[in-house]
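Worked problem 6 (solution included).
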Amino acid sequence: MVTKQKISFAPSIRRLPQYLHVIRQFESTGGDYISGTLIANELNLEPIQVRKDLAITGIIGKPKRGYPAGELIKAIEHYLGWDISHKAIVVGAGNLGSALMGYQEFRNNGLDIVAGFDSDPTKIGSRIHGVQIHNIDSLDEIVAQIKPEIAILTVPSPFAQSSCESIVKSGIKSIWNFTNTKLKVPDYVSVQREDLSSGYAMLSVMMQQLAKNLDSIEN
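Solution. The predicted structure is:
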């Protein structure tokens, strides 16, 4: 039986795309070497944290010079698997699913959304941001043809588990779950859940804390 394991360096992995954005911008201005301190300052982090995070990619900076920007970009992209293309489908072509289909950064980082699926007759057969929308009932057939590696799940929560089961049945083993449902999957299937409510909760608390701080300053 295949057993799931927690990914080491998970917090570091979540920060790497932020580093990549900073480094790409730096390189676009003609910069050759970028320091961990510069990256840290851009993202309000500690330089030692940045260096530890970058170390997992295998690249080593040069004293007093920093990291060669081009090589660092390649090292991060390779570590994340973004230097190769991954085909994906979106299951649920509502507002969120449609927005994700149009998100250009996915394609820039090697994620190619090749098809969408929905049960709404008004959407089936249409194109959203150039992506063909198919009937959810044809999932097995289309997946067998295009062989995607990832399914992005954006259906309403009551339909999340049944849609997940259809995805697994079709042969896809990686699911990016944007619903608020904890999916039940076999051990050989990987699920990454994105809880948008948690992000909003964090922002709300930060807003309240900022308001309290400003109020204490003014009074």
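Discussion: The beta strands are 33-34, 67-68, 86-91, 111-118, 127-128, 131-135, 150-153, 174-177, 190-193.
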